[in-house]
Amino acid sequence: MRTLGRSVLYRQLSRITAKFTPRTNRVCHCFVKFLSLSDLYPKCFWRTNLQVLHNFDKWETIAPFSAAIFPLFVPFWAALVPQDRNCSTRKSSNAKPNGHRKGPRGNPVKASKKIVFFVPSFSSIEATAPLGILAISTPLLNAGYEIKIIDSTITPNYKRRILEEVQDALCLGISVVTGPMIRDTVEVAKAVKKWDRDFPVILGGWHPSLLPGQTLEAPYVDIVVRAQGEDSMLEVVQHLQGGAELDDVLGVGFKRDGKLHFTPERPLKTLDKMPPKAYHLADFDAYEQVCGRRWTMYVSSLACPFNCSYCTNAGVYGRKWNALPVEQVVEETIDLTRRYRLELLWMADDNFLVDLERALQIAEGLIRKGGRFKWSVQATTNLTARLSIEELTLLRRSGLHQICQGIETASPAVMKLMNKDFQVLGDIYESTERCVKAGVIPSFNIIFGYPGEGVKERRETVNFMMDICQKFPGAEFWTNIFTPYPGSPIFHQAAALGIDVPKTLEDWVNYFPRYTVLPWLKGKDHQRVQTMRDYLRIAFDRAPIAANGPGRFAKAVQHLTAYPARLRLNHDFYSFPVELWLNRQLKNIVKLPKPSVDAKTMGPETASSCT
Ligand code: B12
Ligand code: SF4
């Protein structure tokens, strides 16, 4: 019998023998192992027989006797279950055995009400609860399902834990973003399929939403859920349980007769129509241990009215900005932070300041109701620039401590190419000054290597960064290398730009903006930009969410190296990077926590996807 058959067998066997004494249990296991290794009978045979045995409650009494005579009855039993002869240990069939429920490939699945979710680790120690999974869990819980979440960020033996948890579950759901998260996803999905190839594996989140076809092509993926998953996931599991086909579930893809099928898109729902997220499922103590800070994300508004050419947002949310009512945001955030003793809320809104009035009312509400937590938002530079010093002070009083803004470039030419001409550099200076005065950290993101960015344009950006940081101490910058994400407007040009676009789900593992190598930014040029980014990292202070960052000693040395780093950046000189070497040595002495998926193990040379 194949490994697959054996695993099904053991699963059934453990259920039957759960109530036995350990000794009888061991004897039964050895006996069945012996028979199964002899490869005498197909999987379906074992499954049917064991199901019969499962319903027999005097098993304990007759076990030793039946063990002895069991082989004699085997052929007769087999004859009694002719309908199951259709199934094979080698290839799944679409025949629906009488009385059995049907999985995505037409195979029988269990009637369990347990759903297992896997969250592959983000390449970051900014660890907290996975909002996507908490969002889709609420409708499932309301419908009586049991949820088990395994997040590899906080679960050391996550693969083993998943294999244990799926034993009595209906399906496994995985949440995936393009990039290193796919590595754990593939590993886990393959392991589950090795255990039982008929066990349904469902992928949802940004990557499957943007590339549903390619994701579903992977042999270890049965179903993909596109975009918002709250309603789709509930319908999928209900269909799996009822043995129904998924054709009438909107927004999903599935396999039938070896072919991929996709249902029409599910219309997007506005945020106020969505149920609250099941935060109570999150193990905040465990996240705090990894991250050093007790925090979570909260979504108060959805989508963004802009359409920057490198961004995937419009591809999923279609620029239809919508938001929760002010009172709901105030009540929920205060309740959330009190209930779970959280010190920080990170608004995962794509552009929090679209409705300025609303933002100010939230601040007033938090002050009035006694909110005692820090919060931070993401917003475009032009919308941040609308805030007066009084308004920023009000926001600060309510706990707002940081506004993250995607400048991405300070070159007007590249800004145009990025479809970001709503951004005015002069305004950024003024709003940064006001932020710093009001005590709100202005935090900026930069993308290097955008198509059309040459040495001159890159220099414009670095000069701008240096200027801002020197004029307004406290302002911070985070940099990345351009990575064309599927679903973004620029992605259509990727092939024409010479980018070798990944062809399979697994190929996307190394797609990561910290290391991307581009046809126009490779070899020595790429190395130079990476070294420059390293100097930008140590030249000015920045505060990551994770408090488990460098200790005081490491920070002191960083301050010592900051001055030479700024000199280098001002003069565009990066040879003999001794300060970086010093920093690295320090990191080896002062051990920092590491995420379980560490993209830093990928050198640029392995980031083949964009070369
Ligand atoms: C918070 C966040 C982060 C945090 C995550 C913190 C944490 N511990 O979770 C941090 C800062 C670490 C982060 C890092 C990165 N991020 Co990010 N991040 C986000 C952000 C702003 C919010 C995500 C969120 O929680 N949303 C709220 C929940 C409710 O929505 P959701 O996750 O989309 O889930 C819904 C559906 O997708 C679906 N769903 C989700 N999972 C599942 C699973 C199943 C089984 C099913 C059925 C459905 C389903 O149902 C949910 C409810 O409707 C999004 C932008 C956005 N608007 O979503 C970007 C976003 C996800 N990030 C993105 C990127 C690119 C990155 C980075 C590469 C950035 C970088 N420069 O390093 C890294 C990737 C790191 C990695 N994974 O390897 C892109 C992803 C694009 C893509 N193609 O995948 C996004 C979309 C931003 C953008 N517009 O481009 N990110
Ligand atoms: S990058 Fe930011 S501003 Fe631009 S479309 Fe995406 S979310 Fe909106």
Task: State the main characteristics.
611 residues; Rossmann fold; Transcription Regulator spoIIAA; seven-stranded mixed β-sheet; six-stranded parallel β-sheet; 22 helices; 43% helix; globular; binds cobalamin; binds iron/sulfur cluster
Task: Please tell me about this protein's structure.
Helix content is 43%, strand content 12%. It has 611 residues and is of the alpha/beta class. The protein has 3 domains: 6-80; 105-270, 3-Layer(aba) Sandwich (Rossmann fold), CATH 3.40.50; 287-589, Transcription Regulator spoIIAA. Helix 19 links the parallel strand 14 and strand 15. Helix 1 runs parallel beside helix 3 (43-54) and helix 16 crosses helix 18 (425-438). The two termini are 45 Å apart. Iron/sulfur cluster is lined by residues 304, 306-308, 311, 313, 350-351, 380, 406.
State the shape: globular
Overall average pLDDT: 83
| CATH classification, class level of the largest domain | Alpha Beta
Strand order of the largest sheet: 2-1-3-4-5-6-7
Classify the beta-strand content into a percent band: 5-15%
DSSP summary, beta strand count: 15
What layout of secondary structure does this protein have?
Blueprint (H helix, E strand, L loop, with lengths): L2 H15 L4 H16 L5 H12 L4 H22 L33 E6 L11 H12 L3 E6 L6 H8 L5 E5 L5 H15 L5 E4 L1 H5 L1 H6 L5 E3 L4 H13 L9 E5 L2 E4 L21 H8 L3 E4 L2 E2 L10 H5 L4 E2 L2 H14 L4 E4 L8 H13 L5 E5 L2 H4 L4 H9 L2 E9 L3 H6 L7 H14 L2 E8 L6 H17 L4 E6 L41 H17 L12 H20 L6 H12 L22
Parallel strand pairs: 1-2, 1-3, 3-4, 4-5, 8-11, 11-12, 12-13, 13-14, 14-15
Antiparallel strand pairs: 5-6, 6-7, 9-10
Helix pairs in contact: 1-2, 1-3, 2-4, 5-10, 13-14, 14-16, 16-18, 20-21, 21-22
The structure holds cobalamin and iron/sulfur cluster.
The site of cobalamin has 42 residues, from helix 5, strand 3, strand 4, helix 8 and helix 10.
